[in-house]
Specification:
- The complex is a heterodimer of chains A (289) and B (336).
- Chain A contains 11 helices and no strands.
- The radius of gyration of chain A is 19 Å and the shape is globular.
- Chain A has helices spanning 2-33, 40-58, 60-81, 91-113, 139-161, 163-173, 175-180, 185-211, 219-232, 237-257, 264-276.
- By secondary structure, chain B is an all-alpha fold.
- Chain B has a domain at 50-262.
- Chain B contains 15 helices and 2 strands.
- In chain B, a hairpin with a 2-residue loop joins β1 (169-171) and β2 (174-176).
- In chain B, α3 (51-71) runs antiparallel to α11 and α4 packs parallel to α6 (130-150).
- The longest helix of chain B has 27 residues, at 229-255.
- Classes of the chains: A mainly alpha (289), B mainly alpha (336).
Chain lengths: 289, 336
């Protein structure tokens, strides 16, 4: 029993880590641009597919970095050509736009790489289990978690210590003032968008090493990412981090006792948070309106 | 609310929907639309359509108009309306499957299931605004998808709920055979649609409807006037959910089938695009949007398996080039 619980907590943390990577990207875009990026899960899938194409030529390690960069670049281009035009309009348009993009990207993936799952080969050095008892902690999972931790720490350091990161945080609080101080807000939003998409691409490469590739692999992560943001509190990236881990572990633990309720429990948590603490765990008063 | 405020708000809007000045154009629009809808079974065959397609259009038009009650006339964006639509479908389907063979009773249960679920969740939602309202509605809508998906023995799970069919309608001593006769069923759908449209028109013309429009136009000002904004948004959301679940119940009767995709947020997005494509500030816009979408999807999905790309492109094109919708463009043409 203990092993089973431990197994599921590990699973929960790993799933939670993916929720967090997704949710941080969605939250950054939401906070600065007031756009819910519906296509985020599809950028995640693209990250996986780009790595799938790159690996035969470059090997896994280069693909792990290059593929998210390419996806980020694509995100940048899409922001420049389409998303930025709807910033000033009613939010319904940005939702519809990213919704349409999500349909298109998913269908293009299906058209190019086929509707069925594809495996992503990871280096042999990563695929062994660490010990007999803890068979479920494979080298790849440890590796995955370390990359996720490194990138989250990197993101928070980026937002805290670099000039661009500070501007992004300032823009989240008061975009007008930031613009008035002579900062190019359009560029800021584009770069912020690209960073968010980069995170999705990275999550995509890591996830496909574990579960393989398929055109709608990101869809199951999108809603939990939204919920992580709501539970953690809109406007707080730390809250998003906590929210993602919380729902990941809660959902995995529920699997032990009542597998059918593994999704429902996430929504129960969200409903409880909204009832008891509408602004979310770490959200600021008044942000979530 | 004082009469002048409502008059000014009404006056500021273009004609062609309730809430504007009552005048000839509104009645002509309504008359033309009803003429087309009522005569559809006569000419549909000539243009390559069929009655079930027309019934599908009317059902989707009803859910799109239900959403527009909220989106276009209250200014609140729900992106989770498929949930209440799907609950209506499941409510009707489950009733016919397990409880009774009365179509009326099935309709009633479907409407109540979706409507009450919406009313209860509305309590949690009504304090959110803008994109956050949308985000929470998407998230909550998805609960019902997972319930229908996971509860195999009761709902049929992934494959959907089968094994029921609509039954002839009992009208006192008479029965109307909507089961075998597609045209009669179409008129039944149109009858329910008519009742809902009449109710919506009535609500939007009432002081309550004017208040909703005031909230849409300027929420802060409405608050200062002493309007309980959250309560009105909650009421509008609930009413909209009742209409959406009515459409859902009809949808289950139309297909004799209810499946989890009718609860999925993808359908919510489709409902929003119908509203926006038709024109979200106009009363009949969603009907036009629904007609275009349903016919187009029927046509494209028979031509290619990549219909998702076309639907996605449609979304992008509408957002980029026709943000005010088809009726919006036509109206602008007419006024210049």
């Amino acid at each position: 029993m203990l092993q089973l619980v431990l197994f599921n907590v590990t699973n929960g943390l790993i799933i939670g880590a993916f929720y967090v990577l997704m949710a941080l990207g969605v939250a950054m875009i939401l906070n600065l641009s007031n756009v819910i990026n519906f296509a985020h899960g599809n950028f995640l899938a693209l990250g996986g597919y780009f790595a799938f194409v790159l690996i035969p030529y470059t090997g896994f390690w280069v693909a792990l970095l290059v593929s998210p960069l390419l996806v980020g670049l694509l995100g940048y281009i899409i922001e420049q050509t389409m998303v930025r035009r709807v910033y000033s309009r009613d939010p319904v348009y940005s939702l519809l736009l990213t919704f349409g993009l999500s349909f298109i990207i998913q269908d293009v993936c299906r058209y190019i790489w086929g509707p069925n799952g594809l495996p992503l080969t990871v280096p042999d050095s990563l695929s062994q289990g660490l010990s007999e008892d803890l068979f479920f902690i494979t080298g790849y999972r440890v590796f995955m978690m370390s990359i996720v931790i490194v990138s989250i720490v990197g993101l928070f350091a980026f937002l805290r210590y670099t000039r661009l990161g500070i501007r992004i945080r300032a823009g989240t609080l008061d975009l007008d003032t930031v613009a008035a101080l002579g900062i190019n807000v359009r560029l800021l939003r584009s770069l912020n968008f690209a960073v968010g998409i980069f995170l999705a691409g990275l999550a995509g490469v890591l996830a496909s090493g574990q579960i393989g590739l398929n055109p709608n692999m990101g869809d199951d992560l999108l809603l939990p990412a939204f919920i992580a943001i709501i539970v953690g509190g809109v406007g707080s990236l730390t809250g998003t981090l906590l929210g993602g881990l919380l729902i990941g572990v809660a959902s995995a633990l529920t699997t032990v006792f009542w597998a059918s309720a593994q999704e429902a429990v996430i929504y129960v948590i969200m409903a409880l948070v909204l009832l008891v603490r509408p602004r979310g765990l770490m959200g600021e008063e008044g942000m979530f309106t | 609310m004082s009469a002048t405020t409502t008059d000014r708000l009404g006056h500021a809007r273009p004609n062609g929907r309730p809430g504007g000045r009552p005048g000839l154009p509104q009645w002509t629009t309504a008359a033309v639309i009803w003429l087309v809808l009522l005569s559809a079974p006569l000419w549909l065959g000539l243009v390559g359509g069929y009655t079930a397609l027309a019934a599908h259009v009317v059902v989707m038009a009803l859910v799109a108009m239900a959403l527009n009650f909220l989106l276009g006339f209250t200014g609140v964006m729900s992106f989770g309306h498929a949930a209440y639509f799907g609950l209506g479908a499941y409510g009707a389907g489950l009733t016919l499957r397990y409880l009774s063979d009365s179509t009326w009773f099935a309709m009633l249960n479907g409407i109540l299931l979706g409507g009450i679920a919406g009313t209860l969740l509305g309590l949690l939602l009504c304090r959110r605004r803008g994109v956050y309202f949308a985000m929470v509605t998407i998230a909550f809508g998805q609960i019902f998808y997972y319930i229908a998906y996971r509860w195999d023995d009761f709902t049929g799970g992934y494959d959907g709920l089968r094994g029921f069919s609509r039954q002839p309608l009992a009208f006192g001593p008479w029965t109307i055979d909507i089961q075998g006769n597609g045209t009669l069923f179409y008129y039944f759908v149109l009858f329910v649609f008519g009742i809902c449209v009449a109710l919506m028109t009535f609500l939007l013309r009432s002081p309550f409807g004017r208040t909703l429009i005031a909230i849409r136009e300027n929420q802060r000002r409405a608050q200062f006037l002493g309007i309980a904004v959250n309560k009105h948004i909650w009421l509008s959301f609930s009413i909209s959910c009742f209409f959406a679940s009515t459409a859902g119940a009809l949808y289950a009767l139309l297909n004799n089938f209810a499946d989890p995709t009718s609860l999925h947020y993808n359908l919510s997005g489709v409902i929003v695009i119908m509203v926006v494509m038709g024109g979200m500030r106009s009363f009949w816009g969603p009907l036009v949007g629904a007609a275009i979408y349903v016919v187009l999807q029927d046509y494209i999905s028979s031509m290619t398996v990549n219909w998702m790309s076309f639907v996605g492109l449609l979304f992008v094109m509408v957002v980029m080039f026709f943000p005010s919708g088809i009726l919006g463009v036509l109206k602008r043409r007419a006024s210049t």
